[in-house]
Amino acid sequence: MRYVVTHTTTYSYDDDVTDSLGVGHLVPRPTPAQEVLGSEVLVDPEPVDLAADTDCYGNTVTYFQVTRPHRRLTVEGRSEVEVGTPAYDGDALAAPWERARPLWHPEAPGAWRATDFALPSAGAEQTDEAWSYAAASLRPGRPVGEAVTDLMHRIHADFRYDATATTVTSTVEETFRHRAGVCQDFAHLTIACLRSHGLAVRYVSGYLATLPPPGKDRVVGADASHAWAAVWVPGVDEGEWLALDPTNDQWVGDRYVTVAWGRDYGDVPPVKGVIFTEAKKSTLTVSVDVAPVAPVGTTAP
Amino acid sequence: MTVLRDYAAAVTQPALVGGAPPYDEVVAPDGSLRPAWKGLAEIAVGLTDADLRRVQAEIGRFLTDDGVTYARPGRSQGRWRLDPVPLVLDASSWSPIEVGLAQRAELLNAVLVDLYGEQRLLRERIVPAPVVFGHSGYTRVVARPDAIDPRPLVLAATDLGRDADGQWRVLADRAQAPSGIGYAMENRRVISRVLPELYREAGLHRMEPYFWALRSALIQSAQGDLADPRVVVLSPGTHSETAYDQAFIASTLGFPLVEGSDLVVRDGWVYLRAPGRLEKVDVILRRVDAAWSDPLELRGDSQLGVAGLVEAVRRGRVRVVNGLGAGVLENPGLMPYLPAACEALLGEPLRLASAPTWWCGDPAGLDVVLDRLGEIGEGLIVRPIDGPAEVLLDLSVDEVRQRILAAPYRFVGQDRLTLSQTPVWSRGQTRPTPVTLRTFTLRYGSAYRPLVGGLANGWDDARSPTSMDVWVLKSDPTDPDQGLSGVLPMTAARSVPTTVPRVLEGMFWFGRYAERVEDLLRLVLAAHALADDFRARPRSTGGASLAVLMDAVHRLAGPSPYVDGDLDADFRSVLLDPRRIGGVDHGLDGLRDALRGVRDQLSSDTWRAFGTTDRAADALEANPHSHQVAESAGRMLTGILSLQGVTASMIRDAGWHAIGLGRALERALQVAHLLAATTTERRGIDVDREVLNAVLASAESAVTHRRRYRGYVRPTGVLELLLMDPANPRSVTFALAEARTHLAALPGSTGSSRPERLLEDLVAELGSVDVAELVTIGGVERPNLVRFLDHFLVAIGRLADAVAEVHFASGPAPRPFGGGAG
């Protein structure tokens, strides 16, 4: 599938901001299942500095600075991608999950690099509760693909999607307490559960193209940025990363646009920054649009 | 008997308990002196208890005069402790240390380059990945496959200990922002003054050339080929544990000491926020831990850092020393793997061994540590790879076992060495005390060079350190100091005046507090003189005058906490009580704090003032007699007045003008307060005369007044002299004229800036005052005078606020923002 993604983040302030520095993860990265055909990041007011760099995980990071006094800052990422459905090695998925623990099997190819995603990180605290919850899925010797998919099903069944239950800084413990959350919380929950048993798991930030209800038109801008988890599965080269979306109870397929991955949300927020201002209030609005595009040579239905 | 003989006799007693005895740094097992001490024997052996007691007292005085402080984590600044007996090493025992340290720094630099770039050590499993990825010092935002900094390690510190076999071993590496080299230099300065004969005789390596090399290395570490790179020392502020060390380095090297709020990033470059312009910064000697150094990409809640610094570093536009990722080297989990890393990266065997260390993430290492858990507190140290052993201190063996098993990769076990011992002077005798040696290694030119010397610490039973100077003797008197013959002395050191707003503010408060304390001390002296005469006769006119003066004291220093009117207790608390806001101790504290923030800009003589005031305060604490109040207040005044000498010889830059402005405004304020407390009421001719005389005395204008008015003391004359007289430096008119000059010289003053306008209004108002009208009586009061002074005090306060707003504001603090995910 081919998509044009537009992700607009707007901050409004009740007083002048004299200096605003930010970093964004807004440019999708190429993966075996995803080709990036074009991308740009626009900042308004005009930045004095706008630069792209590749971070230690291979994500594209955009750095910007605005020094013209402003009460509104808009950061817009636009990109066009061609996405397919990832394929995984069947034998690798069938191996016992215990083999996929890099600290137990440091000799496995790629284990050293996967280690970074097996250790605790601030945003996905490995609570005892997470360990117990995951233990029901991670039965001894169970194939890794099956075990983590089972965990995904259970999270989807046991936790309610509720945007009012949590905030951007909510913890795994809070998600358990409310039995509810949003995609970011479910991704962190999955990470905490699996890492507490030694698996290596990435937090993946991206987008999901939503299908309009039958008979309705697609509403532009109604989409949201999305997040899911990817589990390290050794076997092929340095290993594969099985991407699963507990929010929608499915493996990541060709409706998913991958932007960036890290240990947790903190490594790859779409936009974060520092402002210098006397302003008391700021409001944030985010609009995301994932528009399907017919590939060249086909005609619209 | 002399001290050293006593010591030798004591340590050669056969040990009562088993186990290998510690290595002694002074005395060989047969009771003879170690070779390094033999050359010093003639003088050293002659030192008696009395000598050392005298030397120790002198050390205390020098350290106080130099204002040397050190804060334990979580405590306030306290005095630095220095033992009179140095740790002495001869050239032959130093040489393997030197070679080993140079190699280690080269290795650590190579490790750093690898871990943040190619990661060969991890890929080839020479270093286990969890040791690095699990360490809080690993700074991912500067990790890039194509990292551009080939020399992230410029200054390393390594803590060494000598085991029972006499072998030096590494206890810990310090690479984040190594501290202590300033203390080492200060120790040398003091010891060379208190033991001059010994120092001269020793033939040891002087330290100065090393500082020249350090300066040169920092300048050369600028990226590109700059003619005159700007180097700054980034400090977390005056409350840092090692604030003294930071300021010492900054002022010795001639680099400005800055805080995060003094710097700003624009377009990927780092600038110093000078008033009206930005000055590019090329090299930052960092004393802020990496995690706190950029609120944009590291800890968002940090107010110590510079937003955008990481980006500037990644683009190679500023060099941070040491590199932001260097903290990962402070990792005992690396120690077991350094021999292999050395073979892999440098192709040579590791020379300087670490204390035996086991990483628990390795199954074999885990077994060793778990087997030996019973030895914790004795032969084994267990600690997290990125935290102190203290976090496990109160846990039982089983609890420690559980902690380790929950995350084995987080922990190491390390042999606790039987450290070598050296004499440390304590409570009237020298005791054999375990010693560690902090060494420093600098990237100078193309090689790493250890400081020939260091900072030794003796550890008493409470694990509380006493520092020692470290003397490394030359093998030949003609050897160049530090083995550095080609280094240029620092005569060319460019003195860089820093007029960032924070520094100007510090200077301004220096002026204000110095003036405030001075004026209050004079008032206390005048009041105490009256008290001496009249305290026993409260109903006399003198007693009534005394009460007025005490009101003036209380107006400035807060009400007396003593309800029974105990005058001496009141005076003492005005001078000594830190909780008495507005009192002398409180003012001195504010002064000290202001000065610490600008320490690098000031002569080291500055701190002598506090040596004097501290001793005066100690004397007052020790002596219960009333006359000691005047005695100590007088000596405190002497100390404070010495600051005038410091400012007199300062360059006339913006900082100097800020001090002058602070002084002038404070003086105007103090005089107005004094007049408001003493001259607005009529109390009868005799009392008024007595009070006015005391006012004149405390405003240092008694002589002038007597000459001008022939001893006839009237309010009109006093007000003429203290309010209006443009020639009397103690008058408000004079102070405002001074303030006008200083204010005009501050960067940012335009002739019509708000502070200048407010000051002009004040001057005009004062100029239009008719003293005859002011003293007009209405009832017991002088209503015109009351109204005028009230108004004046408010206006001065407003002026001071305006000055702060225009000249000292460094803008709002950084605030993080983010966005959500679905």
Automatic annotation (TrEMBL), chain A:
<protein>
    <submittedName>
        <fullName>Transglutaminase family protein</fullName>
    </submittedName>
</protein>
<dbReference type="InterPro" id="IPR038765">
    <property type="entry name" value="Papain-like_cys_pep_sf"/>
</dbReference>
<dbReference type="InterPro" id="IPR002931">
    <property type="entry name" value="Transglutaminase-like"/>
</dbReference>
<dbReference type="Pfam" id="PF01841">
    <property type="entry name" value="Transglut_core"/>
</dbReference>
<dbReference type="Pfam" id="PF08379">
    <property type="entry name" value="Bact_transglu_N"/>
</dbReference>
<dbReference type="InterPro" id="IPR013589">
    <property type="entry name" value="Bac_transglu_N"/>
</dbReference>
<feature type="domain" description="Transglutaminase-like">
    <location>
        <begin position="175"/>
        <end position="248"/>
    </location>
</feature>
Automatic annotation (TrEMBL), chain B:
<dbReference type="InterPro" id="IPR007296">
    <property type="entry name" value="DUF403"/>
</dbReference>
<dbReference type="Pfam" id="PF14403">
    <property type="entry name" value="CP_ATPgrasp_2"/>
</dbReference>
<feature type="domain" description="Circularly permuted ATP-grasp type 2">
    <location>
        <begin position="86"/>
        <end position="456"/>
    </location>
</feature>
<feature type="domain" description="DUF403">
    <location>
        <begin position="501"/>
        <end position="808"/>
    </location>
</feature>
<dbReference type="Pfam" id="PF04168">
    <property type="entry name" value="Alpha-E"/>
</dbReference>
<dbReference type="InterPro" id="IPR025841">
    <property type="entry name" value="CP_ATPgrasp_2"/>
</dbReference>
<protein>
    <submittedName>
        <fullName>Circularly permuted type 2 ATP-grasp protein</fullName>
    </submittedName>
</protein>
<dbReference type="InterPro" id="IPR051680">
    <property type="entry name" value="ATP-dep_Glu-Cys_Ligase-2"/>
</dbReference>
